[in-house]
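Working notes for the structural subgroup meeting. M.R. asked for a predicted model of this chain before we commit to crystallization trials. I am recording the input and output together here so anyone reviewing the notebook later can reproduce the run.

Input as submitted:
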Amino acid sequence: MGLTPIGIDEFPVHQAPLSLARVGTGDRNFYDRCYLNAHDRTGDIFFVTGMGFYPNLGVRDAYATVRTGDRQVSLRLSDALDERSTEQRVGPYRIEVLDPLRSLRLVCDHPSLGFDLMWEGSFPAVLEQPHVMLTGSRPILDAQRFAQVGTWSGFLNVEGTDHEVSPDRWVGTRDRSWGIRPVGEAEPPGRWADEQSDGFWWLYVPLRFDDFAVILVLQESPDGFRTLNDAVRIDPGGAVEQLGWPRIQIDYQEGTRLPTAARMQLTRADGSDLRLEIEPLGYVALHVGCGYGGDPDWSHGQWLGRDHASVHTFDYSDPSVSSRVPWGVIDHVAKATCDGQTGYGLFEHASMGRHDPSGFADWMSVAPGEDA
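Returned structure, recorded in token form:
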């Protein structure tokens, strides 16, 4: 695409010159979207948010969700996209770029879920490898993104309760992606309704340590064939070191596919091992109120009307909610150890259908008990 990371924050990709991004395509599924999360390293509270623009659908939208305990509050915002503008706003929600790829302000003035938060990147952002997925011969996802870890400060108000956000405790991850992916109202499945995939396995792990960051993105076919392999270590000066071919072991809770621990063995440029031990803490299922694939309530880019704002609550102890959890991408707060340091970040994982390396034979397979 001829695109470098510098300038992405300064100018929304969907409004950038055609030499910078594939915005000239007439594909209805072109999108330009950012994702951000924040947590206090305990897993007791987890904030996830994002905003997207869909120029060929004429829609812009945003969401914000906070989970505390089993309760999750989600705010959904949508509006028309009628003109070219560098302003990143949907209703009461806006992103202000203060220093491109270094700091930004995230604001939302809503009585049920409001915030005024400042992001500071701890290490330079990195541009990940392109990500392509096919349905038959048609690309349904052809995208790229940059990712970054950092800290947060400010306040978060959830249903009248204030949470002070300080950078000594609150950390998080952000990314921005662009390209094509399924958005808006569902398209007719046609032939592919009879030729569906056997499974989907995905892992995205950005971690922040005191002296370095690690960002890992993997995707595998049902037989374990790796279709995306991108793992890097970033130092404070911005040097990026590739970490070879990660070997992954994930433990799952009995009778589920919820991860309880993960071990990762990566390889540094000098051939030495870099080992990560990860403990997943609290989680948000992105398909529960956040509009990601598998969410039965709405999807990103779906037309909800002008100046739409609605609040939705979910109780993970309710079987009607918990039964949805296995069928999508789940974001976990992550506690990690590496090179004698403890770090925090995100453990984003999806394991649906068959995945031979994990021992899951089909869509209904779950982790066995100790006596199995």
